[in-house]
Design a protein that fits this description.
The longest helix is centred in the C-terminal third of the chain and has 22 residues. The protein is built from 5 helices and no strands. Helices cover 64% and strands 0% of the residues. It is mainly alpha-helical.
């Protein structure tokens, strides 16, 4: 999968590399975004959504500001929207959206 800027992001690799014992709020925000990008309709969808929410809540518990959490959630939403636009054949719109997303 790629993010809207056209860069390839291996979300599974981001998740696999995340140390669950981490005490870094930024790592938990990135983990939450990565988890959100792999949610697909399935019997486990609700559990996956809960894991995303828990990652963001844990980031906040570790010191992430409410604004940083909201920004990460916005990024996750925009990344998903851009992917949907790309799949729908609206690559130009997906690219334009990519300029709004600040993904490291």
């Amino acid at each position: 999968m790629s993010d809207p800027s056209g860069r390839q992001t291996d979300w599974r690799a981001v998740i696999a590399a995340h140390p669950l014992e981490s005490h870094e709020a930024a790592e938990w925000l990135r983990y939450g975004v990565a988890l959100s990008q792999l949610i697909e309709p399935s019997a486990e969808e609700r559990q996956q959504q809960q894991q995303v929410g828990l990652a963001f809540a844990h980031a906040e518990a570790l010191g992430a500001s409410k604004e940083a959490v909201a920004l990460s959630q916005r990024q996750a939403t925009l990344l998903s929207l851009a992917q949907a636009l790309e799949l729908a054949g609206a690559g130009t719109a997906a690219a334009a959206l990519g300029r709004l997303v600040d993904w490291p």
